[in-house]
Automatic annotation (TrEMBL):
It comes from the Bacteria. It holds the Pfam family DUF6817. InterPro entries: DUF6817 (IPR049202). This is DUF6817 domain-containing protein. Residues 15-97 form the DUF6817 domain.
Amino acid sequence: MEIRKKNLDERVKQLQSFGSEEFAHINGTLTQHLVGTYKILEGWNREEALCLAGLFHAVYGSDSTRAELLGTDQRVEIAEMIGQRAEALVYLFCSCDKPYVLPQIGSESRVNFRDRFSGAVMQFPSELLNDFCELTIANDLDVARNKEQEYYHEDILDMFRRMYPMVSAEVRLELDGLFDKFCT
């Protein structure tokens, strides 16, 4: 656990050196949101690569309306910091054309992925789909929990329902409590 905390502290300092403290986020800074996402994943006992992907999930900008900390031309450097698998998840999350991809998850047997940076369309990498779903849920949970009043729009709850079969028992347990609290 001590090694994980030291690794987290070092990675947070790296994010801050990229300017994460300079970007406002829901009730705080981007750094706080990134750490919050990491902590949710860590609380679910996810592997370190997924937790680190949660910590860096916005480094290339998570959608076209958000600023990026680094350009995608620095993928090699990020991979050296957090590992290949974690960086692949970060790139997948940042490059995902979410309005195109997210509605397919859980409703289609084959999910097509569109890269918002390149426009390329391909089959979603099946070996990353579960981690992508857990990262997406952790991101949205941190956002909702940091609003003045925790709230989930019906479209977010619907997305969580579609992702439910693809996530771990720990995440399903969290979602069950969320559905009990916010769904009638």
